[in-house]
Each structure stands twice: as C-alpha cells, then as structure tokens.
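MOLECULE: protein
FOLLOWS: sequence and fold
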Amino acid sequence: VELANIPILVKSEYGIELFQIEADPTQEGVPIKTKMFFVGDTLNFDNLKVLLKLYGQESKLLEKNNNFSVDTTGVTDDRIKEIYQSIRVSIVLKDGISEITDLSKVILDKNYDGAKIKISVMNENRETITRLSKELKVRTKIPQVYIDTIIPKDGITPYTTISSDPDWYDEFVSTKITWMGDFDSLNRFKAGESYTAQVTLSAKPGYTFYGINEDLISVKNVSGNFSSPVDYSLNVAENFDTIVFKIAFSSTLANTAST
C-alpha cells in the first residue's frame, strides 16, 4: 500500500493544504512506500508521521500520539487548534463498513487484505474531509516450492502443466511448462536424451512468491533426488505473483508403458 502523498485540499484561510503520511508503519524511521504486507505483520503506527500545513502557517510534522491526538499547547488560534484536534486515522476493511479505530497494535491477517488507511480532518465548515490510502495487499508467503510430477519419461508427451496430484499444491498453480530438447516424430520424450523445462508458476489468491529464491525451489529428478533451478534462470514478477525458472534433466526415466 502506498502511504505517501495523501493530500487533503481545503480552500480556506485555515484549511489544510497537505496531509501526508511520511513513514511506513512497519518500518523504523524509514520513509518508504510499501507495496505489500504479510500475514502476521504488525502495523506499528507509533512510527507514523504526518506532515500538516495550514494556509499562512508553517508546516508541522506530527508524530502519532494517542491516535494522532495533537499537542496544541501554545496554539492561540482556536480555529487552528480545532483543526489539529480533529485529525483521525483508522483502518477501513474491504467491506467498506467495518472500521478499526484502535491502532495501538494491529496484527494483520487475511481480513485486512483490501483494507485502506483512512485519514480525516475537519474543514472550515466543521465538515469531516476524508481520504483513503490505496488498498493494503496482505498475502501469505509461499515458503518453498517442491515439484515431483514433471520428470520426463521415455515415450511420454511432455507435460505442459504440473499434475493436479498431489493436491497439496494449494499455494500455486502451474500456468505453463515449455520443454527444450530432442523429441521423436510424435513430439515425445526420447530415451537417454537430456531435457530442460521452463516452468511458470502463479500464486493462488492470497499468496505471494515474495522472498522466494533458487535455494527454496526443488524439482524431483530422474534419480529421485531434488534439483534446484538452472543458475540465474529464476525470474520473479514485479508484483511477486508469478515466477519463471528452468530445470535441467540429464536423462529420461524408463517408462514400462511407453511404446
């Protein structure tokens, strides 16, 4: 979710010109944009900062204090004080109705997927002006990838997807498998030949390949052991929803049913 540059424009002598979240609530003092959160993450709003600028006033950097209750000590203008005190930050869940107002400790689960951070403040007419962040993407990390169903066998037509069995592939699906090597006239695997498969996997809804690397991917080979992808062949999509890698097989597996 991008938490930077959330403006509230109010045309007023005392209206708020810019209302901005500067820091990522999962980080310690690092002003960055976060695209994705993970199940189990804690949103630490104690580290959140808001930049508030009023017309005719200096910009004021406010830190979270009792849900952004601002210290107005020394503020003599009652209207400015009222604007400061009206700031509220909450989380609106995907249904658009449920709202989390206690931000002292928010531990994310899948119910927060699609939620938005809401920022509100009162304008000169004492009307509440509200802005929402982009949706939080809350995902469960896929910790490892094991595949044992694509071993090339003599006389078998190359697999184009991973078999649906076993059914424990509940975190991802294979959208495409492309094979490289020498095939017979019927486009089947030839005995004793080596082959390379390029495998494309897509995360199922609610899951992500964020953090996956070659060491966490294992494909069963002809000898019954597991092999890692070909060096430098792993490509992870920018949104972490898809990975592509190559796996090499030095030979085929004998197939007693082949013809």
